[in-house]
Amino acid sequence: MTxxxxxxxxxxxxxxxxxxxxxxxxxxxxxxxxxxPLRIAAWSAVGLVGGLGWVMLALVRGETxxxxxxxxxxxxxxxxxxxxxxTFIERRLLRPDDRRATPAEHxxxxxxxxxxDRRVLxxxxxxxxxxxGPLVGPVLAAQMGYLPGTIWIIVGVVLAGAVQxxxxxxxxxxxxxxxxxxxxxDELGRVGGAAAVVATLAIxxxxxxxxxxxxxxxxxxxxxxxxxxxxTIPIAxxxxxxxxxxxxxxxxxxxxxxxxxxxxxxxAGGWISESGAAEFFTxxxxxxxWGVVVYGVIAAVLPVWMLLAPRDYLSTFxxxxxxxxxxxxVVVVRPDVMAPAVSEFAGNPAGGxxxxxxxxxxxxxxxACGALxxxxxxxxxxxxxKLVEKERQTRFIGYGGMLMESFVAIMALVAAVSIDRGxxxxxxxxxAMTGGAVDSAAMFVNSLGLTGVNVSPELLAxxxxxxxxxxxxxxxxxAPTLALGLANILSGxxxxxxxxxxxxxxxxxxxxxxxxxxxxxxxxxxxxMLQDALGGIVPRFRDMSWRPGVWIGTLIMCGAxxxxxxxxxxxxxxxINTLFPLFGIANQLLAAIALAVCLAIVxxxxxxxxxxxxxVPLVAxxxxxxxxxxxxxxxxxxxxxxxxxxxxxREALAxxxxxMGAARTPAxxxxxxxxxxxxxxxxxLFLxxxxxxIVAAAVAAIRSLREGGRPDFEDDPVxxxxxAPSGLVSQPSEKELEKRxxxxxxxxxxxxH
Length: 753
Hints:
The protein starts with a strand and ends in a 9-residue tail after the last helix. The protein is 67% helix and 1% strand. α11 packs across α21 (500-534) and α20 packs across α21 (500-534). The protein is an all-alpha fold. The protein has 27 helices and four strands.
């Protein structure tokens, strides 16, 4: 790489007289800090509107609360956090240097490492991190009222979730795009590193399984949904071939075609569901589960350009577009919130029919993604750091991307709390409680003693008919509830009751796209990690292009998460109700591992004064997840503790009973014993491994602090030879420098341009 010399304004410029590769830091900071009257007025308005939103949600208690305040409180808080707190982290802790080449530049190979336009990369990153969690968790946690979930989603993302994503992305980028497990091995030593590798692989299995379970629960016995979602596969394949062979680089063009085909698929699904062909697209959940496993195998071994990349394009447009549309609809329609601020179940140690267990800690592990997600650390140390053009862009992509996911979670919560509470509990309570029929479901919900709730069988049947489904009773998993809430709000803006079924199935397909993207990417990342781990025994596995290794790794990982998926689908206690707490705990234990690695890195850098930025979220998530794990392991309440459930059903079988609770047969009782044993064992495994990693990180951090910092594992700096803006919107000085680059060098030809 050519050496550099000081360029105009203090920016580094290559010695062959290329323009400066970045605006001088002082100039850029001065522009960001310049407070004009217009800027002062704008930020004053943000503060006033956001403060009013929080007052209306947290303090004002009328008969109803308008959903519009969720949008105002969330958006204003995100804007302030991004402008001030993320900037503070950038200046105080990370100190990025845009004159330093990123791995995408100095290791560019046209495949894994490739400088990518920041806007395109933001879309790719968001598509990869946003799975089922921000959609499902808030829906399930709505059982406890709207206020606890709202506070955790917004405050949690500002201080924890976005911080984790930003730090992991930056540190991985500085280490050549190294994985989280790889950084753990560097920072924590042999024991801590090995525990991190095993924990990451084990947790990935449960995460992908629950993501897939949400899809299965949403599509079971729904020919309209199955047809629409199935059609997204050939549409994505068409887009992949279109971009590679027919019209290379025409991302916008193929996206318009893809969205049009998706909308047609939804409409055609309605025709299919009302025709004789419906039986060909009506599957039970077990059959669908096997189909998703087969899909996972195929998607993980196909070339990225063929299915995964075009599905990213589709899902990014659908995700951001749909959430933005929902936010606009909330502002225009202004639906009332039907749930109380804090519900009757929030103070109940046993929880409720949807989420068992007390508010603390189970609200905080039920709402994982959207507030804090360990899965994101795998993406932030996976594909994204290998594609970043400039170091400063990590703030927009890492911190900003997580804020967008948090907004998805807020919109999901709004959709859940804006539908009738009786319908909410009828949809989300397990079939063992509701009986699976409208009469018994209405009787069950009315027996809960909820204030102002009196649901009738006619209401449940009529609601199902309005959205084109046979039943909405016990459609657990969160996705159908979110679809109903979204349909209620959007139909108020477009089409009225006549388009309820269209919007419902549009939402189902939107969610499935969301989730299948995470299943695709998650399986591929898990296979990479497994191959890397197996490479320590058989070095050939580390060659990611070795086809036998690709197939072996894929089959092992799909077999592992597929087994958990089948267990969840056939669980007599309701798979999502028992597995989602484990999903949340595992996900946030992974976040604790990621933050622990970041703590060790920050301490090694000698950044003592900034250590609290990592320490605060690390301590919080550790307390939450350890407490939740102890509940699941040691609680004597069968609805909460896995081993308590296991013991109760084993004793019942030993006493000769043929049914118990949700298990109506001896085979079902044996399934509960088997499932709770697996779930309880996983709870212990996850907790022990995470604690080993956290302790190893604490030891490493203390050692670094005592020595005043230690040599880090960052790559040696390489001077940059390309220019790109530092954020989404170019500053005036950046626009001037960009004009100079275009005039002297020519327009950039990097990916996404």
